[in-house]
Design brief:
homodimer, 118 residues, mainly alpha, Arc Repressor Mutant, subunit A, 2 strands, elongated, DNA-binding, BlaI_family (chains A, B), transcription regulation (chains A, B)
Chain lengths: 118, 118
DNA sequence: CGGGTAGTACTACGTCGTGTAGAGGTGGGT
DNA sequence: ACCCACCTCTACACGACGTAGTACTACCCG
């Protein structure tokens, strides 16, 4: 895959947080605090599309963008990618399990248990 | 933290795979296939040290480099970092648990169980 | 004692990803 | 006929990284 830059991530965050596809203009409005040129937003949306993070469909002259995958899926994939970096996946996984907080260990346990039951 | 480049990662791999600190020259020799200039290796070792991935100690005129953390710790940290990217850690964790292979789920389960027992 | 050798520090340069944005084209509404 | 909203293309600066040269120093060999 590939990591995202800071602006790219902000924009993905907006699209992930929003149900339904948005136009560049709409995204820009939702990021009014950053005061970006409209073309900047368009450029980034375009790059994200090219990288496969977004899908776009026509809406009149405008494009509407929406995430190709959920943020959770993206995060999970990043985690797997990190995991791939090691020769010893088992050791890394164990290490990871030991590192997460108690609450999170609980969540993991529950998810794994449910998995098992299916 | 911060990701590593490709060369940087190769060098970390060598140091991670090796017990005990190595000099730049030794690292270079272990990467003979890439035929890098000695200074290249030194530069990268230096950058890695500055980034906090390596510690170095004097050995005569030379420096000896060794990882500040194990590869597993690094991988686990990367995974946690990915996890931090989301607002909903629980959802991402669940997603992650569902995504890993059966074998890996088993490893996770075991690690979590052992955790619990302590 | 003088030179090669190993090692260091410093500097440099090309490339790529990313943030940022302007210029110019085009189609629809008034 | 014109303006506006949008698009596409192109551009540029900056920082990270791969890669390496240069210059300086300390030591061993003969």
């Amino acid at each position: 895959m590939k990591g995202l830059g800071e602006l790219e991530r902000s924009i993905m965050d907006i699209l992930w947080a929003h149900d339904g596809p948005l136009t560049a203009r709409e995204v820009g409005r939702l990021m009014a605090d950053r005061d970006l040129a409209p073309t900047t937003v368009m450029t980034v949306l375009d790059r994200l599309t090219r990288k496969g993070f977004l899908n776009r469909t026509r809406d009149g002259r405008a494009w509407r963008y929406e995430p190709g995958a959920s943020r959770d899926a993206y995060v999970a994939e990043l985690m797997l990618e990190a995991l791939d970096m090691t020769g010893d996946r088992s050791a890394a996984l164990t290490r990871f399990a030991q590192t997460v907080s108690g609450t999170e260990a609980e969540i993991l346990r529950k998810a794994l248990t449910e998995l098992e039951e299916e």
